[in-house]
Amino acid sequence: MLRAKVSLDREQQSSYTLWVEAVDGGEPALSSTAKITILLLDINDNPPLVLFPQSNMSYLLVLPSTLPGSPVTEVYAVDKDTGMNAVIAYSIIGRRGPRPESFRIDPKTGNITLEEALLQTDYGLHRLLVKVSDHGYPEPLHSTVMVNLFVNDTVSNESYIESLLRKEPEINIEEKEPQISIEPTHRKVESVSCMPTLVALSVISLGSITLATGMGIYICLRKGEKHPREDENLEVQIPLKGKIDLHMRERKPMDISNI
Description:
single chain, 259 residues, mainly beta, Immunoglobulin-like, 2 domains, 4-stranded mixed sheet, 4-stranded antiparallel sheet, rod-shaped, disordered C terminus, glycoprotein, Protocadherin/Cadherin-CA, membrane
């Protein structure tokens, strides 16, 4: 039985390869070796890291002539986890300003756009408290960041704006946060009884990353490679475009009752 001598962290190293030798007590002694690849499962232990805006004190000038529907800024975050643990959603959970509801955020991209034409009464500082959440299980993790938008023709008095930013904002957290559901591209493939290293029970595509899931193990497959399985007469191919194809080289009945 193999046991870890130290704590393992998938974010530091995702897999280990071991060569194991078994030797009998005969004379002469006979032996055989086996290669063992250990893939670490991901746990949701990293909250999203907000890269932009860089701080709660940064701000952006929004011209009053900005047309509705125009993007004004964005919130950008990354997550060190994988799979659904790294799928990020953005939402505005608090607002303060002359008419901060004039701005909305795209839950998938983090782009913030102007919803309504700005009026003379909208001049001034608008503050949006943005929540950045992952889709981790059993509990999602999140971070927050303040987005500051200053509506004016010019930035004539930066010290005045900075003094406003230094004040503790009185922002009421919205009682009901927007319910966001982001479904990755997901398609079923044939369920087969096989080793868990290559053949998957389902395929999930998240942007440019393709993950296969099988027997409870997440496996990242390299694009452009073919993985034949002679015992099941299967072949898994990952073309350069990133979509996984699992097919039988020769069609035959399969027993999937024990899966």
